[in-house]
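Quiz preparation item.
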Protein backbone atom coordinates (compact mmCIF):
# COMPACT_ATOMS: atom_id res chain seq x y z
CA UNK A 1 0.00 0.00 0.00
CA UNK A 2 1.27 3.51 -0.75
CA UNK A 3 0.83 5.99 2.11
CA UNK A 4 0.81 9.74 1.66
CA UNK A 5 3.20 10.08 4.60
CA UNK A 6 5.29 7.72 6.70
CA UNK A 7 6.40 9.23 9.98
CA UNK A 8 9.33 7.61 11.76
CA UNK A 9 8.99 8.05 15.52
CA UNK A 10 6.01 9.04 17.64
CA UNK A 11 7.51 11.59 20.06
CA UNK A 12 6.65 15.30 19.99
CA UNK A 13 7.85 15.82 16.42
CA UNK A 14 6.19 12.70 15.01
CA UNK A 15 2.92 12.88 16.94
CA UNK A 16 2.05 16.44 15.96
CA UNK A 17 3.01 15.87 12.31
CA UNK A 18 0.92 12.67 12.27
CA UNK A 19 -2.12 14.36 13.77
CA UNK A 20 -2.04 17.43 11.54
CA UNK A 21 -1.35 15.53 8.30
CA UNK A 22 -4.07 12.98 9.07
CA UNK A 23 -6.44 15.83 9.93
CA UNK A 24 -5.68 17.36 6.53
CA UNK A 25 -6.74 14.11 4.89
CA UNK A 26 -3.35 12.47 4.33
CA UNK A 27 -3.09 8.71 4.65
CA UNK A 28 -0.55 8.49 7.47
CA UNK A 29 1.53 5.62 8.84
CA UNK A 30 3.56 6.09 12.04
CA UNK A 31 6.39 3.59 12.57
CA UNK A 32 7.54 3.51 16.20
CA UNK A 33 10.24 1.20 17.56
CA UNK A 34 8.85 1.20 21.13
CA UNK A 35 5.80 -0.40 22.66
CA UNK A 36 2.48 0.98 23.76
CA UNK A 37 2.76 1.49 27.51
CA UNK A 38 0.04 1.78 30.13
CA UNK A 39 -0.56 1.10 33.79
CA UNK A 40 -0.52 -2.66 33.16
CA UNK A 41 3.08 -2.70 31.91
CA UNK A 42 4.89 0.39 33.28
CA UNK A 43 8.25 -0.85 34.61
CA UNK A 44 8.33 -0.96 38.39
CA UNK A 45 10.34 -3.92 39.68
CA UNK A 46 14.09 -4.42 39.02
CA UNK A 47 13.39 -7.30 36.62
CA UNK A 48 10.92 -5.23 34.52
CA UNK A 49 11.82 -4.01 31.00
CA UNK A 50 13.54 -0.74 31.91
CA UNK A 51 15.97 -0.49 29.02
CA UNK A 52 15.98 -0.54 25.26
CA UNK A 53 18.87 -2.64 23.98
CA UNK A 54 20.21 -1.78 20.52
CA UNK A 55 21.80 -5.18 20.13
CA UNK A 56 18.68 -7.15 21.03
CA UNK A 57 15.63 -4.90 20.44
CA UNK A 58 13.51 -7.92 19.51
CA UNK A 59 13.69 -9.16 23.11
CA UNK A 60 14.78 -6.10 25.12
CA UNK A 61 12.57 -3.22 24.01
CA UNK A 62 12.18 -1.46 27.35
CA UNK A 63 11.11 1.97 28.55
CA UNK A 64 14.33 3.95 28.21
CA UNK A 65 17.08 4.10 25.59
CA UNK A 66 20.14 5.04 27.61
CA UNK A 67 23.32 5.58 25.59
CA UNK A 68 26.75 6.29 26.95
CA UNK A 69 29.26 8.31 24.91
CA UNK A 70 32.63 9.65 26.02
CA UNK A 71 31.76 12.58 28.29
CA UNK A 72 28.04 12.38 27.57
CA UNK A 73 25.10 10.14 28.40
CA UNK A 74 21.80 10.44 26.51
CA UNK A 75 18.41 9.26 27.77
CA UNK A 76 15.52 8.97 25.31
CA UNK A 77 12.11 7.39 25.45
CA UNK A 78 11.30 4.29 23.39
CA UNK A 79 7.55 4.27 23.30
CA UNK A 80 4.38 5.18 21.47
CA UNK A 81 4.48 8.79 22.63
CA UNK A 82 8.31 8.96 22.67
CA UNK A 83 9.81 11.26 25.27
CA UNK A 84 6.39 12.43 26.48
CA UNK A 85 6.06 9.27 28.55
CA UNK A 86 9.33 9.75 30.41
CA UNK A 87 9.69 13.51 30.47
CA UNK A 88 9.06 15.80 33.44
CA UNK A 89 6.01 17.47 31.80
CA UNK A 90 7.51 20.94 31.55
CA UNK A 91 5.97 22.64 28.56
CA UNK A 92 7.26 26.18 28.59
CA UNK A 93 8.04 28.37 25.61
CA UNK A 94 11.57 29.13 24.57
CA UNK A 95 11.99 32.86 25.33
CA UNK A 96 12.14 35.28 22.40
CA UNK A 97 15.85 36.05 22.96
CA UNK A 98 16.74 32.42 22.12
CA UNK A 99 15.84 33.11 18.49
CA UNK A 100 17.99 36.22 18.19
CA UNK A 101 20.99 34.26 16.97
CA UNK A 102 21.85 30.80 15.71
CA UNK A 103 18.52 30.17 13.98
CA UNK A 104 17.52 30.57 10.33
CA UNK A 105 15.89 33.96 9.74
CA UNK A 106 12.57 32.21 8.96
CA UNK A 107 12.30 30.86 12.52
CA UNK A 108 11.13 33.65 14.79
CA UNK A 109 9.49 33.78 18.18
CA UNK A 110 6.66 35.92 16.77
CA UNK A 111 5.85 33.23 14.23
CA UNK A 112 6.18 30.38 16.70
CA UNK A 113 4.05 32.00 19.38
CA UNK A 114 0.70 30.99 17.86
CA UNK A 115 1.96 27.40 17.57
CA UNK A 116 3.12 27.42 21.18
CA UNK A 117 -0.40 28.51 22.11
CA UNK A 118 -2.02 25.80 19.97
CA UNK A 119 0.15 23.07 21.49
CA UNK A 120 -0.49 24.34 25.02
CA UNK A 121 -4.24 24.16 24.40
CA UNK A 122 -4.11 20.76 22.73
CA UNK A 123 -1.97 19.29 25.52
CA UNK A 124 -3.92 21.05 28.27
CA UNK A 125 -0.85 22.73 29.72
CA UNK A 126 -1.36 24.35 33.14
CA UNK A 127 0.39 25.36 36.32
CA UNK A 128 0.13 23.54 39.60
CA UNK A 129 -2.84 25.02 41.50
CA UNK A 130 -1.96 27.37 44.34
CA UNK A 131 -3.48 25.06 46.93
CA UNK A 132 -1.18 22.20 45.85
CA UNK A 133 2.27 23.68 46.28
CA UNK A 134 4.68 21.18 47.76
CA UNK A 135 6.94 21.98 50.71
CA UNK A 136 9.89 22.17 48.29
CA UNK A 137 8.21 24.79 46.11
CA UNK A 138 7.42 26.95 49.11
CA UNK A 139 10.96 26.56 50.40
CA UNK A 140 12.40 27.68 47.06
CA UNK A 141 10.10 30.69 46.82
CA UNK A 142 10.86 31.74 50.39
CA UNK A 143 14.59 31.38 49.81
CA UNK A 144 14.40 33.43 46.59
CA UNK A 145 12.38 36.17 48.29
CA UNK A 146 14.61 36.33 51.35
CA UNK A 147 17.63 36.76 49.09
CA UNK A 148 15.97 39.51 47.11
CA UNK A 149 15.42 37.40 43.97
CA UNK A 150 11.68 36.86 44.28
CA UNK A 151 11.15 38.38 40.82
CA UNK A 152 13.31 35.68 39.24
CA UNK A 153 11.21 32.84 40.62
CA UNK A 154 8.17 31.57 38.76
CA UNK A 155 6.07 28.49 38.29
CA UNK A 156 6.48 26.29 35.25
CA UNK A 157 3.80 25.29 32.77
CA UNK A 158 3.15 21.56 33.03
CA UNK A 159 1.39 19.08 30.76
CA UNK A 160 -0.38 17.56 33.75
CA UNK A 161 -4.08 17.42 34.59
CA UNK A 162 -4.79 18.83 38.04
CA UNK A 163 -7.98 18.76 40.06
CA UNK A 164 -8.23 22.17 41.78
CA UNK A 165 -10.13 20.58 44.64
CA UNK A 166 -7.35 18.13 45.55
CA UNK A 167 -5.31 19.09 48.63
CA UNK A 168 -2.47 17.49 50.55
CA UNK A 169 -4.35 17.75 53.82
CA UNK A 170 -7.57 16.16 52.58
CA UNK A 171 -6.53 13.81 49.79
CA UNK A 172 -2.86 12.81 49.77
CA UNK A 173 -3.36 9.82 52.10
CA UNK A 174 -6.01 8.41 49.76
CA UNK A 175 -3.38 7.91 47.02
CA UNK A 176 -4.63 6.87 43.59
CA UNK A 177 -8.23 6.78 44.78
CA UNK A 178 -8.29 10.56 45.02
CA UNK A 179 -7.67 10.89 41.28
CA UNK A 180 -10.69 11.83 39.20
CA UNK A 181 -10.78 9.84 35.96
CA UNK A 182 -12.68 11.25 33.00
CA UNK A 183 -12.33 11.59 29.21
CA UNK A 184 -10.25 14.56 28.11
CA UNK A 185 -11.30 16.82 25.22
CA UNK A 186 -9.89 14.32 22.71
CA UNK A 187 -11.80 11.40 24.26
CA UNK A 188 -8.87 9.66 26.00
CA UNK A 189 -9.29 8.76 29.68
CA UNK A 190 -7.24 10.95 32.01
CA UNK A 191 -6.97 11.10 35.76
CA UNK A 192 -6.01 14.08 37.89
CA UNK A 193 -2.63 14.39 39.59
CA UNK A 194 -2.42 12.98 43.10
CA UNK A 195 1.25 13.89 43.57
CA UNK A 196 2.72 10.41 43.58
CA UNK A 197 5.96 11.66 42.03
CA UNK A 198 6.40 8.93 39.39
CA UNK A 199 6.19 11.22 36.37
CA UNK A 200 9.36 9.87 34.72
CA UNK A 201 8.42 6.21 35.02
CA UNK A 202 4.76 6.24 34.01
CA UNK A 203 1.86 7.93 35.74
CA UNK A 204 -0.39 5.35 37.37
CA UNK A 205 -3.41 7.62 37.22
CA UNK A 206 -2.80 8.99 33.67
CA UNK A 207 -2.57 12.56 34.95
CA UNK A 208 0.35 13.27 32.61
CA UNK A 209 -0.95 14.70 29.36
CA UNK A 210 1.22 12.38 27.29
CA UNK A 211 1.05 12.33 23.50
CA UNK A 212 -0.79 9.01 23.45
CA UNK A 213 -3.64 10.87 25.22
CA UNK A 214 -3.79 13.90 22.92
CA UNK A 215 -2.01 14.22 19.55
CA UNK A 216 -1.57 10.50 18.87
CA UNK A 217 -4.98 9.71 20.27
CA UNK A 218 -6.63 12.20 17.94
CA UNK A 219 -4.46 11.10 14.98
CA UNK A 220 -5.48 7.48 15.47
CA UNK A 221 -9.06 7.70 16.70
CA UNK A 222 -10.33 10.84 15.02
CA UNK A 223 -8.28 11.16 11.83
CA UNK A 224 -7.53 7.46 11.19
CA UNK A 225 -3.75 7.54 11.10
CA UNK A 226 -2.19 4.10 11.52
CA UNK A 227 0.27 3.79 14.41
CA UNK A 228 2.42 0.65 14.44
CA UNK A 229 4.47 0.03 17.59
CA UNK A 230 7.58 -2.18 17.71
CA UNK A 231 8.75 -1.29 14.19
CA UNK A 232 12.44 -0.41 14.05
CA UNK A 233 13.23 1.60 10.92
CA UNK A 234 16.57 0.92 9.30
CA UNK A 235 16.69 2.40 5.81
CA UNK A 236 14.99 5.04 3.67
CA UNK A 237 15.26 4.48 -0.05
CA UNK A 238 14.12 6.99 -2.70
CA UNK A 239 12.39 5.23 -5.63
CA UNK A 240 12.44 6.13 -9.31
CA UNK A 241 8.80 7.28 -9.26
CA UNK A 242 9.52 9.95 -6.65
CA UNK A 243 8.15 7.98 -3.68
CA UNK A 244 10.18 6.43 -0.84
CA UNK A 245 10.48 2.88 0.45
CA UNK A 246 11.02 2.68 4.20
CA UNK A 247 12.61 -0.55 5.43
CA UNK A 248 12.06 -1.68 8.99
CA UNK A 249 12.19 -4.69 11.31
CA UNK A 250 8.98 -5.75 12.91
CA UNK A 251 9.81 -6.82 16.48
CA UNK A 252 7.47 -9.76 16.97
CA UNK A 253 7.70 -12.68 19.41
CA UNK A 254 11.42 -12.24 19.98
CA UNK A 255 12.14 -12.03 16.24
CA UNK A 256 13.11 -9.28 13.78
CA UNK A 257 10.97 -9.68 10.69
CA UNK A 258 12.01 -7.49 7.73
CA UNK A 259 9.21 -5.38 6.24
CA UNK A 260 8.81 -2.28 4.09
CA UNK A 261 6.20 0.32 3.14
CA UNK A 262 6.15 3.14 0.62
CA UNK A 263 5.01 6.76 0.81
CA UNK A 264 5.15 10.05 -1.06
CA UNK A 265 6.55 11.84 1.99
CA UNK A 266 8.80 10.55 4.76
CA UNK A 267 9.13 12.51 7.98
CA UNK A 268 12.10 11.53 10.11
CA UNK A 269 11.08 12.28 13.71
CA UNK A 270 13.12 9.69 15.56
CA UNK A 271 14.63 12.09 18.11
CA UNK A 272 18.02 13.78 17.94
CA UNK A 273 19.98 10.54 18.06
CA UNK A 274 17.54 8.32 16.17
CA UNK A 275 17.06 10.77 13.30
CA UNK A 276 20.78 11.49 13.04
CA UNK A 277 21.53 7.77 12.92
CA UNK A 278 18.97 7.11 10.21
CA UNK A 279 20.18 9.98 8.04
CA UNK A 280 23.87 9.19 8.44
CA UNK A 281 23.29 5.48 7.85
CA UNK A 282 21.34 6.31 4.70
CA UNK A 283 24.14 8.53 3.48
CA UNK A 284 27.25 6.61 4.56
CA UNK A 285 26.21 2.93 4.82
CA UNK A 286 23.36 2.32 2.38
CA UNK A 287 24.21 5.26 0.08
CA UNK A 288 20.48 5.79 -0.53
CA UNK A 289 20.26 9.36 0.82
CA UNK A 290 21.91 12.50 -0.57
CA UNK A 291 25.65 12.73 -0.32
CA UNK A 292 26.07 16.36 -1.31
CA UNK A 293 23.89 18.06 1.24
CA UNK A 294 25.00 18.35 4.81
CA UNK A 295 21.69 17.54 6.41
CA UNK A 296 22.94 17.00 9.95
CA UNK A 297 23.54 20.48 11.32
CA UNK A 298 26.84 20.76 13.09
CA UNK A 299 25.11 23.06 15.59
CA UNK A 300 23.03 20.15 16.87
CA UNK A 301 26.11 18.36 18.08
CA UNK A 302 27.66 21.59 19.36
CA UNK A 303 24.55 22.38 21.34
CA UNK A 304 24.53 18.92 22.92
CA UNK A 305 28.08 19.48 24.13
CA UNK A 306 27.06 22.72 25.82
CA UNK A 307 24.29 21.28 28.02
CA UNK A 308 24.62 22.52 31.59
CA UNK A 309 26.40 20.18 33.94
CA UNK A 310 23.89 18.25 36.07
CA UNK A 311 25.54 19.73 39.15
CA UNK A 312 23.91 23.07 38.29
CA UNK A 313 20.51 21.50 38.73
CA UNK A 314 21.14 20.35 42.28
CA UNK A 315 18.54 21.82 44.63
CA UNK A 316 18.83 22.53 48.32
CA UNK A 317 17.96 19.52 50.40
CA UNK A 318 14.38 19.06 51.41
CA UNK A 319 12.62 16.00 52.71
CA UNK A 320 9.77 16.26 50.20
CA UNK A 321 9.77 13.83 47.27
CA UNK A 322 6.17 14.49 46.39
CA UNK A 323 4.40 15.93 43.41
CA UNK A 324 5.29 16.43 39.76
CA UNK A 325 9.00 16.37 38.99
CA UNK A 326 9.68 20.02 38.20
CA UNK A 327 7.35 22.84 39.07
CA UNK A 328 9.29 26.06 39.12
CA UNK A 329 12.18 27.79 37.47
CA UNK A 330 14.62 30.39 38.60
CA UNK A 331 17.00 32.66 36.76
CA UNK A 332 20.32 32.23 38.45
CA UNK A 333 21.83 35.63 39.11
CA UNK A 334 25.52 34.82 39.30
CA UNK A 335 26.44 34.47 35.65
CA UNK A 336 24.43 37.40 34.34
CA UNK A 337 23.85 35.20 31.33
CA UNK A 338 20.08 35.35 31.62
CA UNK A 339 20.03 31.56 31.56
CA UNK A 340 17.15 29.92 33.30
CA UNK A 341 17.64 26.74 35.27
CA UNK A 342 15.04 24.25 36.35
CA UNK A 343 15.10 23.72 40.03
CA UNK A 344 12.92 21.78 42.42
CA UNK A 345 13.87 18.48 40.85
CA UNK A 346 12.30 15.54 42.61
CA UNK A 347 15.06 13.82 44.48
CA UNK A 348 14.88 11.26 47.21
CA UNK A 349 15.89 12.60 50.57
CA UNK A 350 19.29 11.25 51.56
CA UNK A 351 19.41 8.25 53.82
CA UNK A 352 20.18 9.17 57.43
CA UNK A 353 23.93 8.93 58.12
CA UNK A 354 24.89 5.41 59.10
CA UNK A 355 26.80 4.95 62.31
CA UNK A 356 29.61 2.40 62.04
CA UNK A 357 29.71 -0.35 64.66
CA UNK A 358 32.36 0.37 67.34
CA UNK A 359 34.86 -2.17 65.96
CA UNK A 360 35.03 -0.34 62.59
CA UNK A 361 34.93 3.23 63.82
CA UNK A 362 38.09 5.11 64.61
C1 LIG B 1 14.11 12.07 31.77
C2 LIG B 1 13.77 13.16 30.80
C3 LIG B 1 13.00 14.25 31.21
C4 LIG B 1 12.68 15.27 30.30
N1 LIG B 1 11.90 16.30 30.72
C5 LIG B 1 11.53 17.26 29.85
C6 LIG B 1 10.64 18.28 30.23
O1 LIG B 1 10.14 18.30 31.36
N2 LIG B 1 10.28 19.21 29.32
C7 LIG B 1 10.78 19.19 28.02
O2 LIG B 1 10.41 20.07 27.23
N3 LIG B 1 11.63 18.22 27.64
C8 LIG B 1 12.00 17.25 28.51
N4 LIG B 1 12.81 16.25 28.09
C9 LIG B 1 13.27 16.25 26.70
C10 LIG B 1 12.15 15.78 25.76
O3 LIG B 1 11.67 14.54 26.19
C11 LIG B 1 12.69 15.67 24.34
O4 LIG B 1 13.25 16.90 23.95
C12 LIG B 1 11.59 15.30 23.35
O5 LIG B 1 11.02 14.07 23.70
C13 LIG B 1 12.17 15.24 21.93
O6 LIG B 1 11.11 14.99 21.04
P1 LIG B 1 11.39 14.26 19.67
O7 LIG B 1 10.11 14.08 18.95
O8 LIG B 1 12.50 14.95 18.96
O9 LIG B 1 12.01 12.83 20.07
P2 LIG B 1 11.42 11.71 21.02
O10 LIG B 1 10.34 12.20 21.88
O11 LIG B 1 12.62 11.05 21.65
O12 LIG B 1 10.74 10.71 19.98
C14 LIG B 1 11.49 9.96 19.06
C15 LIG B 1 10.75 8.65 18.87
O13 LIG B 1 11.35 7.98 17.77
C16 LIG B 1 11.47 6.61 18.08
N5 LIG B 1 12.57 6.06 17.26
C17 LIG B 1 13.89 6.34 17.38
N6 LIG B 1 14.58 5.67 16.43
C18 LIG B 1 13.66 4.96 15.71
C19 LIG B 1 13.76 4.07 14.60
N7 LIG B 1 14.94 3.78 14.02
N8 LIG B 1 12.62 3.50 14.15
C20 LIG B 1 11.40 3.78 14.71
N9 LIG B 1 11.26 4.63 15.76
C21 LIG B 1 12.38 5.21 16.25
C22 LIG B 1 11.74 6.58 19.58
O14 LIG B 1 11.39 5.34 20.16
C23 LIG B 1 10.86 7.72 20.07
O15 LIG B 1 9.57 7.27 20.43
C24 LIG B 1 13.15 15.21 28.97
C25 LIG B 1 13.93 14.12 28.55
C26 LIG B 1 14.23 13.11 29.44
C27 LIG B 1 15.06 11.95 28.96
S1 LIG C 1 2.96 13.48 40.34
FE1 LIG C 1 2.09 11.45 40.24
S2 LIG C 1 -0.01 11.69 39.72
FE2 LIG C 1 1.04 13.61 39.23
S3 LIG C 1 1.66 13.37 37.07
FE3 LIG C 1 3.38 12.70 38.27
S4 LIG C 1 3.07 10.50 38.45
FE4 LIG C 1 1.11 11.36 37.81
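Solution:
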Amino acid sequence: MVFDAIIIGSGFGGAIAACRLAEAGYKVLVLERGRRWDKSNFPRKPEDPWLWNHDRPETENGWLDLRMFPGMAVAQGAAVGGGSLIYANISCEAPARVFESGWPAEVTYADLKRHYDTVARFMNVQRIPNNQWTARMQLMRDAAEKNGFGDRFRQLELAVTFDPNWTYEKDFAKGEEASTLRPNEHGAMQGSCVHLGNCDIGCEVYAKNTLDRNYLYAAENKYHAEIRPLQLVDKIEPLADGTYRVWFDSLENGQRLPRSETARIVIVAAGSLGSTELLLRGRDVFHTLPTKRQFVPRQTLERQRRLPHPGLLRPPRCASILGPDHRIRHRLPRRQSGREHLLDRRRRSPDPPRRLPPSQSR
